[in-house]
Amino acid sequence: MDRDTTLRTLLVAGLVGTVIAALAVSSGRETEAVTAISVKGGNVSSVDLKSCATLEQADPIDSHCAALWEANRRRFFGKPTEGVAP
After folding, report:
1. CA dist list (Å): 45 to 7, 54, 56
2. Which helix (H) or strand (E) holds 49?
3. What is the pTM of this model?
4. Which of 5, 19, 20, 66 is most buried when burial is the number of CB atoms within 10 A of its CB?
5. Which helix or strand (DSSP H or E) is residue 24 part of?
6. What is the pLDDT of residues 18-65, one digit of tens each?
C-alpha cells in the first residue's frame, strides 16, 4: 500500500468511527421521573401486570404501571418490597 491509500483508509475508518459514536450517543435512553406509588405489601397480581403489558414503549409512562413493574422486579430479585415505595 502506498501512503495515499493508507491515509485514505485511516480517514474513512475515522469517519466511520465518528458516525458510530454519534449514533450511540444519540440513541441513549431518556430517563423520565416516575412518581413513587407504593404497592400494597408488594403484592402484584398477574392481571395488573398483563394490563400494564399492553402499554407501548412510546406511550407516556403510567405511574401506576411503573410502580407495579418495579414491585414485581423487586420481588423477582428477592429485594424487600414491603414498605418500599417503588
Report:
1. 62, 15, 20
2. helix 46-53
3. 0.36
4. 66
5. helix 3-26
6. 999 888 887 776 655 554 555 555 566 777 777 777 766 556 667 778
